[in-house]
Amino acid sequence: MVLRKHLEEHPLDATAMAILAETLMRFERYEQSAELLARAIELAPNLVGARHTYVTVLLLQNKPEKALPRSIPSSILSRKIRTIAL
User: Does the pLDDT of residue 45 top 70, yes or no?
Assistant: First the structure.
């Protein structure tokens, strides 16, 4: 697969990881998809498409308790919590 080869040569390409993960999700390979998405989000926390796909994969795996905290970047979430506290 072209994306796997690309990731071998560019292991920090979060966008390529997210694209491959979405493809894996469509083939119902949820575990592999979730692992790639977690890594992609770790590398690029504001990659919104990856977050959306990750939440979808977690919900498809019947893991709603893990889905919500991953839907919003922690930097945004902490900012909103500080604003509400004021």
Answer: yes
